[in-house]
């Protein structure tokens, strides 16, 4: 059974979350001892290269496990409930979309092609709150207005909408049951820049209007700085830095974060965007050292040991430079 | 709904689809007509036959329209009754409750051969004294000829051919021949054409006494479909065979496809041992002989059409299509929208039935339509093998009867060809529709 703990003003608190996949070569350490927390009405952005475990983290939080799961441990406190202790059925009924919803990666394809988008948005209401179809449709209409989709689109099918509209519909679907937390997995990766900006403005407005917390997973560092209150940087399945966005976007602590931010092109800047030489390590066969060390400019002898997480208030950084 | 309408619109671009749909519409209309005009119980009673049901019909008579292809026109079967007004009936009141009823049966005889037989069926109403009947024959030219006199009885049949006294008076010719010849003593000559009359005058001896009679001229052809060895009108079987065949085909095809689809989806979604069990059952079922099992069920258990239908569906579920659908579902299962549905807490059943299965419906519909004639033929084949429902008139049953009575050997081609033509037509219609649907749902075939 789930253990109850006193609310500490956090909507989500993750402690030592581990998710490994089983492959023929060995266990893939996709999410490796991750801990962070998220306050009410706070937006946190998860940054990192492809394959560093961002989406796996989202799946681990939402317990959308692939079939080849190897290890799945840790503690996830959502509001007062420790969700890892819930059974699959309890989790489905009490957590998914009731407290926490997901806008999946490539949300454009996340809509059922044979359902009208209105029905699709109303579905979670019907599944979880047992309301009548009419009530659910009314709520769906309100959500369409919130995310800026014309209400008469309710009878259309997904293929009749543009990418931006589909994204908004997926967003409406994630908000319809009024969850406390929404996980957005690369919500804008397939959209043009104008639409991206538009969606982020919508997200901002929704955050203020509905008092929702967001976990935003993205590659798009520049646009995410608009929305995020805090930033999490992942590298090779680990969190290397958790920081407030105000400090993070100006003075990141971890060398990887610095490189990541330096790779963002800047208008009228003198220097070219930088890249990080080399590739992230294979998540199957990781050395007991700093995982970023082979690519790091600031490497020194300490880096052959696995760095600890250094806490400075709510700030975390996993680097010997800050020890 | 919209896709359905679009599909239908697109369908009308294919002439074969229009042809198929037209025939299917015709068959459906025929089924509705059959069920309305001959209610189920009535159809069973008629098909069972027995005493008094088919006495007025000729035996093994081809349909009347075969006359069009014959140089010698053979007589059609004729019913004239004083009760329904097709014959004249006049009452001449007399004294002392002695009344005379005269019934006149008039018919035009324009054929080149003689009828098989003629009969008069009387029904009389009286308490003690039976009416007296006197039959006379009025040829187109010449004098009236007294046929017979007798007392009516409550129900009396007078078959002309079995009246030996009459035969002697016609110079030894059988009455159904002799009565149509101008001079029986000159031997057998072709029948005289023209209007004949049979006059029956009945003398009743009671105030409420009444007589009605039906005159039947047993021709060598009958009706639209002809009759079989039990004098049954084959129209009953042809008409009732339509709804039975369509219902069997449709229910079997629908049941099989829907169950197959659902089981394939369940197998794929749950995976693990569920998948393993379903796939092993399929593998085993696929090597089981289908027809012999059905024959065993029909022989040892029941030949009721419902039981056979159930067995057919059960045996057809776990076949190759379960593997085909499973292959598609394995792909669909990984689609992002399925994961999204899982994320918002849709249960397994909701995912299976509103997310997985709708994806293969476009593929399912052509398969479904193409499967219908297969099951229609199967039903006919089972009936032909003697495993048809014994009480139901069906096309297969007709062919079975025809085969057992040596229809082709004796030249009763109509008996086999009629149901065979309907079977072929049904198969053709669904096949043509199925091919067109396949072309619409399978764009790669469009160039062909």
Overview of the molecule:
Chain A contains nine helices and twelve strands. In chain A, a hairpin with a 4-residue loop joins strand 1 and strand 2. Chain A is globular, with a radius of gyration of 20 Å. Chain A starts with 9 loop residues before the first strand and ends in a 6-residue tail after the last strand. The N terminus of chain A is likely disordered. A five-stranded antiparallel sheet of chain B has the order 2-3-8-5-6, with no helix packed on it. A four-stranded antiparallel sheet of chain B has the order 1-9-4-7, with no helix packed on it. Chain B is an alpha+beta fold. At the A-B interface, helix 3 and helix 5 of A face helix 11 and helix 12 of B.
Question: Keywords for this structure?
Answer:
heterodimer, A: 323 residues, alpha/beta, 4-stranded antiparallel β-sheet, 9 helices, 12 strands, 24% strand, globular, B: 448 residues, 5-stranded antiparallel β-sheet
Summed up, what is this model?
The complex is a heterodimer of chains A (323) and B (448). Chain A has 323 residues and is α/β, with parallel strands linked by helices.
* Strand arrangement in the largest pleated sheet of chain A: 6-7-8-3-9-10-12-11
* Main sheet characteristics of chain A: 8 strands, mixed
- Structural classification of chain A: alpha/beta
Helical stretch tally of chain A? 9
Please estimate the helix content of chain A.
25-40%
Strand order of the largest sheet of chain B: 2-3-8-5-6
Number of DSSP E strands of chain B: 9
Measured between the Cα atoms of the first and last residue of chain B, the distance is: 28 Å
Decide which structural class fits the backbone of chain B: alpha+beta
Secondary-structure element pattern of chain A, one letter each? EEEHEEHEHHHEHEHEEHHEE
How confident overall, as mean pLDDT of chain B?
87
Chain-averaged pLDDT of chain A: 84
List unreliable stretches of 5+ residues of chain B. none
Order of helices and strands of chain B: HHHEEEEEEEHHEEHHHHHHHHHHH
- Structural Rg of chain A: 20 Å
């Amino acid at each position: 059974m789930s253990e109850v703990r006193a609310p500490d003003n956090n909507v989500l608190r993750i402690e030592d979350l581990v998710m490994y996949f089983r492959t023929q070569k060995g266990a893939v350490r996709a999410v490796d001892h991750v801990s962070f927390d998220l306050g009410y009405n706070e937006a946190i952005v998860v940054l990192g290269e492809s394959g560093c475990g961002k989406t796996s983290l989202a799946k681990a939080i939402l317990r959308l496990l692939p079939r080849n799961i190897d290890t799945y441990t840790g503690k996830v406190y959502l509001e007062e409930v420790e969700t890892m202790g819930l059974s699959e059925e309890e989790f489905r009924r009490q957590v998914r979309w009731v407290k926490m919803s997901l806008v999946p990666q490539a949300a454009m394809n996340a809509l059922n092609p044979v359902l009208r988008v209105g029905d699709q948005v109303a579905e979670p209401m019907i599944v979880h709150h047992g309301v009548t179809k009419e009530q659910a449709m009314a709520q769906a209409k309100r959500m369409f207005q919130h995310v800026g989709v014309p209400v008469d689109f309710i009878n259309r099918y997904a293929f009749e909408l543009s990418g931006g509209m589909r994204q908004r519909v997926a967003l409406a679907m994630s908000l319809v049951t009024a969850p406390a937390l929404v996980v957005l997995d690369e919500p804008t990766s397939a959209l043009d820049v104008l639409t991206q900006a538009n969606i982020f403005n919508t997200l901002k407005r929704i955050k203020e209007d509905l008092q929702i917390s967001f976990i935003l997973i993205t590659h798009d560092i520049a646009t995410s700085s608009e929305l995020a209150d805090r930033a999490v940087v992942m590298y090779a399945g680990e969190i290397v830095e958790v920081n407030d966005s105000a400090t993070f976007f100006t003075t990141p602590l971890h060398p990887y974060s610095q490189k990541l931010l330096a790779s963002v092109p800047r208008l009228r800047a003198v220097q070219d965007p930088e890249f990080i030489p080399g590739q992230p390590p294979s998540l199957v066969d990781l050395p007991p050292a700093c995982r970023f060390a082979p690519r790091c400019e600031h490497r020194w002898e300490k880096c052959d040991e696995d760095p600890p997480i250094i806490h400075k208030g709510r700030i975390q950084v996993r680097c010997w430079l800050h020890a | 709904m919209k896709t359905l309408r679009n599909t239908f619109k697109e369908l009308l671009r294919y002439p074969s689809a229009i042809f198929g749909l037209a025939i299917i519409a015709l068959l459906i209309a025929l089924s509705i007509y059959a069920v309305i005009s001959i209610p189920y119980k009535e159809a069973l009673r008629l098909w069972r036959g027995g005493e008094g049901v088919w006495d007025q019909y000729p035996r093994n008579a081809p349909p009347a329209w075969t006359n069009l292809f014959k140089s010698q026109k053979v007589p059609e079967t004729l019913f004239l009754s004083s009760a329904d007004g097709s014959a004249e009936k006049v009452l001449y009141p007399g004294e002392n409750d002695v009344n005379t009823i005269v019934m006149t049966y008039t018919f035009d005889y324009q054929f080149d051969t003689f009828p098989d037989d003629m009969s008069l069926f009387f029904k009389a109403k009286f308490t003690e004294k039976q009416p007296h009947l006197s039959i006379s024959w009025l040829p187109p030219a010449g004098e009236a000829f007294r046929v017979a006199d007798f007392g009516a009885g409550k129900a009396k049949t007078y078959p002309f051919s079995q009246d030996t006294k009459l035969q002697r008076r016609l110079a030894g010719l059988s009455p159904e021949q002799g009565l149509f010849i101008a001079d029986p003593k000159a031997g057998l000559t072709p029948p005289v054409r023209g209007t004949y009359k049979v006059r029956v005058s009945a003398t009743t001896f009671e105030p409420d006494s009444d007589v009605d009679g039906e005159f039947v001229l047993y021709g060598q052809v009958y009706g639209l479909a002809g009759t079989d060895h039990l004098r049954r009108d084959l129209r009953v079987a042809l008409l009732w065979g339509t709804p039975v065949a369509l219902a069997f085909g449709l229910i079997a095809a629908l049941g099989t496809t829907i169950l197959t689809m659902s089981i394939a989806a369940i197998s794929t979604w749950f995976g693990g041992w569920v998948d393993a069990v379903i796939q092993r059952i399929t593998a085993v079922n696929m090597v089981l002989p289908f027809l012999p099992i059905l024959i065993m069920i029909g022989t040892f258990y029941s030949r009721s059409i419902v039981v056979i239908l159930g067995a057919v569906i059960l045996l057809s579920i776990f076949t190759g299509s379960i593997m085909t659908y499973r292959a598609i579902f394995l792909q669909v299962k990984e689609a992002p929208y399925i994961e999204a549905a899982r994320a918002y807490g849709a249960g397994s059943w909701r995912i299976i039935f509103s997310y997985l299965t709708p994806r293969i419906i476009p593929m399912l519909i052509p398969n479904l339509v193409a499967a219908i004639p297969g099951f229609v033929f199967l039903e006919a084949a089972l009936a032909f093998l003697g495993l048809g429902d014994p009480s139901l008139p069906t096309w297969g049953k007709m062919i079975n009867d025809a085969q057992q009575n040596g229809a082709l050997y004796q030249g009763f081609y109509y008996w086999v060809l009629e149901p065979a033509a309907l079977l072929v037509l049904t198969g053709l219609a669904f096949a043509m529709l199925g091919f067109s649907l396949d072309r619409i749902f399978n764009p790669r075939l469009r160039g062909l």
